[in-house]
């Protein structure tokens, strides 16, 4: 636990654990689909993890956009106009406030948060609570091995958000970080993907 | 699909089918996934049986479609809950007061029907947000300002109907006060225009408020008597300049002459905007464990201790920012006059703030203290909720307890003593929790913020404290100006003069104007006859 903490906790509910656990494992059998096209990946310059997330996203060929807490200008000057043309998907690793605002505004475009992960900082590292398509949760298991590189790992996860309607489940993971990287009591961060709603 | 209370599945299915014919199938929402979006993101009833939920939602695109929907609802007795954009977070969001109601979502009615630069007014539909109106004005190069609340993503109409307020000049910052003309769809589907709008081919609907005969606009705010489908607003012509200055006074009791003079300046239109009162010493003392306790007391010992603390550190006890809008030479003269009047308070000091000429450049906008002072909508408030010494547990939302008190120093001191006393008695932090805001002319609103969490027990405690504050404030003659849907009955209950004569009148109106009681049951404590509870 003091170095690399490796375990998986499926945390939908206590009684749902066996089902969800096997469901995430079974996701290994789900064939890969074309990933969702992301218009932009938003990151918050105030947080090192968010910057690392954006660097990896850029390396993957995704367009990135920086904010500093407030997402108003990006939405008002750019995203508003894109969403007027049509519902384009976005992703990010930000504080809760920015994610909440994007989520609320996206509803008016018939878009939803289709993947969300809370990253909670503690003395031993970062705990991740993930909700989203099973294939993304499967990819998210890699967080257990990536230690301080968890944020870059999240960029890989959101970059492979599947298109269309997917079964949504919940999972948890943890990334141990060395002491100097730990941000005990820091604000939780969130990785997220917002995409057009797909009716059942 | 859930069903409204008292409605059979057969009747509800029939009504849903008729709603679909009225607005189009794609604009009627019945799946759990869609209906869940009409929840209260800041609910203090999280994970409790009492949490407010809708049964379905209908989104008309025009007043005619609203009429058609209301005729169907009236025929079948379906409870409806109109929302404009549903973003009044902290006050209930888009969740209905009566669970099981069908949300009448007016977001698609987002047309800016007219903006007149010469006469400085706008006519809008309920789905128009402050951002929408601001963008329209900017895109068209109009020399007009909006006045917006913080955050600015809500509905212009919705905020005004809830008596919301902003931060620019009088009378624009009181959003209901700044309205002129309304169009209403009644519960039976009838369409009514108020004021001069009742005149076919009216030429002054957005310029003369009263029309002819009784002035009815007020009964459609904070009520459930009709669905507002259009509303006019007076806009502020872009001023030439803005100037702000700060006055600091050193002692606890200096707040009395400070507010007396501020009131004079505001009531004389010398200061033509709200005041921004703060107490630097209270904020500093809140961080000192020993002095924190003094903040809940109003006795001489506490006052002297805080005065000494302020003097030793050179921190003003009270600080007030004055804002002026207008021609530069005029506002400079107003600030000079304000300093002359306020200079009579011993030890008063003045700090010149920035002066801006308009329009602002993007670089200036990025550095202003508060975009709201310039009628620029923003969502930046959502980026300041991070964990801090004062906010050890970032919350999932908040509530505001917000009684109205007189604009006097005595009332500020008294309300802080009384309300902080209640908070202390119930084990809540009182250090920076009770503070007056100048939202409306001639009064302060005391804002006491409460966190809401994903924690049932913590939320129950908050609700208990909130209700206790409502009662105690009511005993002192301070009533809420607005409240979360979870407390609407509680707040209405304290307006009890002459054995609740006001509520009886409101119920008489409700029974007459919406006899089947289908519109927004329970909103602001007004229930339809069939759901009326026994009052004490």
Describe the structure.
The complex is a heterodimer of chains A (200) and B (536). Chain A contains 7 helices and 7 strands, in the order αβαβαβαββαααββ. With 200 residues, chain A is an alpha/beta fold. Chain A has one domain (4-196). Chain A has a 7-stranded mixed sheet with strand order 2-1-3-7-4-5-6. Chain B has 536 residues and is α+β, with helices and mostly antiparallel strands. Chain B is built from 15 helices and 19 strands. In chain B, the strands form 5 sheets. Chain B has a 5-stranded antiparallel sheet. A 4-stranded mixed sheet of chain B has the order 1-2-4-3. The radius of gyration of chain B is 24 Å and the shape is globular. The two termini of chain B are 36 Å apart. Mean pLDDT of chain B is 93; it is low at 387-391. The A-B interface holds A 68-72, 75-76, 80, 95-98, 100-101, 104-105, 107-108, 185-188, 199-200 and B 31, 33, 37, 41, 87, 107, 131, 135, 153, 378-380, 382-387, 394.
Strand order of the largest sheet of chain A: 2-1-3-7-4-5-6
Low-confidence stretches of chain A: 1-23
Low-pLDDT residue spans of chain B: 387-391
Oligomer: heterodimer
> Based on CA inertia axes, which overall geometry of chain A fits?
globular
Mean pLDDT, all residues of chain B = 93
Give the biggest beta sheet of chain B.
5 strands, antiparallel
Give the count of helical stretches of chain B.
15
CA(first)-CA(last) distance of chain A: 42 Å
Using CB atoms under 8 Å apart, which protein chain pair has the greatest interface? Answer: A-B, 24 and 19 residues
Counting DSSP H or I runs of 4 or more residues, the number of helices of chain A is 7
Q: Tell me what portion of residues of chain B adopts beta-strand conformation.
A: 15-25%
Biggest sheet descriptor of chain A: 7 strands, mixed
Categorize the overall geometry of chain B.
globular
């Amino acid at each position: 636990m003091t170095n690399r903490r490796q375990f998986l906790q499926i945390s939908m509910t206590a009684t749902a654990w066996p089902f969800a656990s096997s469901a995430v494992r079974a996701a290994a059998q789900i064939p890969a689909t074309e990933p969702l096209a992301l218009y932009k990946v938003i990151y918050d310059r105030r947080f090192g993890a968010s910057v690392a997330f954006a660097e990896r996203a850029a390396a993957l060929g995704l367009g990135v956009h920086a904010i500093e807490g407030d997402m108003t200008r990006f939405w008002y000057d750019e995203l508003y106009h894109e969403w007027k043309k049509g519902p384009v998907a976005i992703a990010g690793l930000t504080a809760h406030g920015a994610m909440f605002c994007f989520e609320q505004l996206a509803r008016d475009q018939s878009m939803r948060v289709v993947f969300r992960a809370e990253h909670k900082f503690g003395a031993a590292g970062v705990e991740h609570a993930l909700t989203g398509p099973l294939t993304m949760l499967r990819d998210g298991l890699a967080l257990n091995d990536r230690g301080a590189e968890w944020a870059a790992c999240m960029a890989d996860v959101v970059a492979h958000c599947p298109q269309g309607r997917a079964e949504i489940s919940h999972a948890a993971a943890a990334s141990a970080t060395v002491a100097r990287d730990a941000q005990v009591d820091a604000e939780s961060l969130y990785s997220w993907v917002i995409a057009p709603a797909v009716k059942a | 699909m859930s069903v409204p209370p008292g409605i059979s599945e057969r009747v509800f299915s029939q009504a849903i089918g008729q709603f679909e014919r009225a607005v189009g199938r794609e604009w009627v929402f019945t799946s759990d996934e869609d209906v869940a979006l009409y929840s209260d993101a800041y609910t203090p009833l999280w994970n409790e049986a009492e949490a407010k939920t809708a049964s379905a939602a209908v989104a008309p695109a025009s007043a005619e479609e609203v009429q058609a929907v209301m005729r169907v609802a009236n025929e079948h007795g379906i409870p409806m809950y109109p929302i404009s954009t549903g973003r009044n977070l902290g006050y209930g969001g888009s969740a209905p007061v009566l669970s099981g109601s069908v949300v009448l979502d007016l977001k698609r009615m987002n047309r800016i029907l007219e903006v007149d630069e010469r006469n400085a007014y706008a006519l809008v539909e309920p789905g128009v947000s402050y951002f929408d109106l601001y963008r329209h004005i900017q895109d068209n190069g109009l020399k007009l300002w909006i006045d917006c609340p913080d955050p600015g993503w809500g509905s212009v109409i919705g905020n005004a109907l809830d008596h919301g307020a902003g931060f620019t000049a009088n009378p624009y910052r009181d959003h209901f006060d700044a309205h002129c003309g309304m169009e209403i769809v009644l519960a039976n589907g009838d369409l009514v225009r108020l004021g001069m709008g009742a005149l076919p081919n009216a030429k002054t609907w957005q310029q003369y408020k009263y029309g002819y005969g009784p002035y009815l606009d007020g009964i459609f705010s904070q009520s459930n008597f009709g669905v507002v489908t259009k509303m006019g607003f007076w806009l502020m012509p872009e001023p030439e300049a803005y100037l702000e200055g700060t006055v600091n006074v050193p002692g606890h009791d200096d707040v009395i002459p400070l507010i007396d003079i501020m009131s004079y300046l505001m009531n004389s239109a010398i200061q033509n905007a709200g005041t921004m009162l703060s107490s630097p010493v209270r904020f500093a003392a809140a961080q000192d464990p020993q002095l924190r306790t003094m903040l809940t007391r109003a006795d001489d010992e506490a006052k002297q201790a805080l005065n000494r603390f302020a003097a030793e550190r050179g921190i003003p006890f009270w600080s007030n920012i004055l804002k002026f809008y207008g021609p530069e030479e005029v506002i400079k003269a107003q600030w000079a006059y304000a300093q002359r009047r306020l200079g009579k308070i011993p030890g008063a000091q003045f700090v010149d703030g920035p002066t801006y000429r308009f329009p602002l450049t993007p670089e200036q906008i990025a550095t202003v203290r508060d975009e709201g002072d310039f009628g620029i909508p923003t969502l930046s408030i959502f980026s300041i909720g991070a964990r801090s010494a004062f906010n050890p547990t970032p919350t999932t939302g908040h509530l505001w307890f917000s009684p109205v008190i007189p604009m006097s120093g005595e009332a500020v001191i008294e309300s802080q003593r009384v309300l902080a006393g209640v908070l202390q008695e119930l084990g809540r932090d009182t250090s920076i929790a009770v503070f007056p805001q100048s939202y409306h002319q001639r009064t302060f609103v005391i804002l006491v913020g409460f966190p809401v969490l994903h924690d049932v027990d913590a939320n129950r405690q908050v609700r208990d404290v909130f209700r206790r504050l409502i009662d105690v404030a009511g005993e002192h003659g301070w009533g809420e100006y607005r409240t979360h849907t979870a407390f609407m009955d509680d707040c209405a209950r304290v307006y009890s003069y002459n054995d609740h004569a006001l509520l009886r009148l409101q119920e008489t109106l409700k029974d007459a104007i919406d006899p089947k009681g289908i519109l927004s049951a329970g909103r602001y404590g007004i229930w339809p006859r069939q759901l009326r509870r026994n009052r004490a």
